[in-house]
Amino acid sequence: MTFWVPQLWIGMDAIGATFNYEFGGKRVTLSLPTDGDAFSKLPDRFLHSPVPSLVQAGPVFQEENRDSATAALVLFQVAIETELEFPAQKPAELDEGQRQAVETCLREAIDRASNVAGRFVRHVRAAAPAQSWLGLSSHTPKQYGVASLEYLDTGEFIFGLGEEQSVTVRSSRLRLDRADLDRISVDIASETEPPVAESLLADAWHLDDATAANDQDRAVLVAAVACEVKSKQAIRRSVGKDRVPLAEMILKRRSNLPELLDEVLEACCDISLRRADAELYQRVKALSYQRNAIVHSGRRDEGGPAMAMPAATASRIFEWIDTFVPPADDPDVD
């Protein structure tokens, strides 16, 4: 099975290298290409054009006493040895039982190969952190071409599965209309930057998007920070003038998101998300819990409260806050 990698820089001595090991009880071979054409061939009329397996990296500095010749890896292969009861001579046509058996076998092998490929990319990324173009640690390498099940001794093709395809359908509510663009134009003319909280929310959506970054841990962190910023701004803009000193004193000591949207907001503004929307408040608690788990242990707590779609949760919090916060141009708001 062949995988894409966004131009991993390697030394010339690594070209054509192979690595053999046991993984999950199966024999695995990970191979780097010997030249630019090694893994590039695609079936006729494929979804996209072939790409080179290997290209020259650069430009690179010419450094004294160092061989600067560097290649950029684009494609690599992972082969999994597996067992399947199947005729020694390939049938002219597969019957339904044979087709189900080979497809199940191949899908299991694809899962295992993808696991190996993902670990490979995560390790090389950690070993060469300055190769920033390799993407985030959560980015998994994508399949290139057709993953095939073949006879081990002859390499004869038995069955194949092409690259996974998907279509994402979104709501038209995401669009910006003329009135939205008119407001943006006013902000540009006044040399105003976008609000920090809303910019962070947009970052969280990007990180949460499987077709973009798909980094759930960072999405949780950024969504939580966006909500904390938004909540503190809301309290400062909504608090009565007689409670401003109280609000400032509390905000210097309390920054936990569930507390901000419950006890702190109620003390300062007589409003509580816990009382107004108990279901959304539970999502806030889950978001905060997982944010703390990542900060303190480096990853989400799989045994803790689930935090699906952190950006969507943050958006709901923003929408709720906007229902009671006075407009920015309100003359009564300092």
Structure description:
- The protein is an alpha+beta fold.
- The protein is built from nine helices and eight strands.
- Helix 4 packs parallel to helix 9 and helix 8 crosses helix 9 (310-322).
- The longest helix is centred in the middle third of the chain and has 32 residues, at 96-127.
- It starts with a strand and ends in a 12-residue tail after the last helix.
Could you give the topology of this structure?
Blueprint: E1 2-11, E2 18-23, E3 26-31, E4 54-56, E5 70-80, H1 96-127, E6 143-144, E7 147-150, E8 157-161, H2 178-189, H3 196-208, H4 216-238, H5 244-253, H6 257-269, H7 273-276, H8 278-297, H9 310-322
Antiparallel strand pairs: 1-5, 1-6, 2-3, 3-5, 4-5, 7-8
Helix pairs in contact: 3-4, 3-9, 4-6, 4-8, 4-9, 5-6, 8-9
Radius of gyration: 27 Å
Query: Given the helix and strand composition, which structural class is it?
Result: alpha+beta
Low-pLDDT segments, ≥5 res? 330-334
Count of runs of 4 or more consecutive helical residues: 9
N-to-C span:
62 Å
Overall average residue pLDDT: 88
Taken as a percent bin, the fraction of beta residues is 5-15%
Helix content range: 40-55%
Described by the principal axes of the CA atoms, the overall outline is elongated
The description of the largest β-sheet is:
6 strands, antiparallel
Oligomer: single chain
> How many β-strand stretches?
8
H/E topology pattern: EEEEEHEEEHHHHHHHH
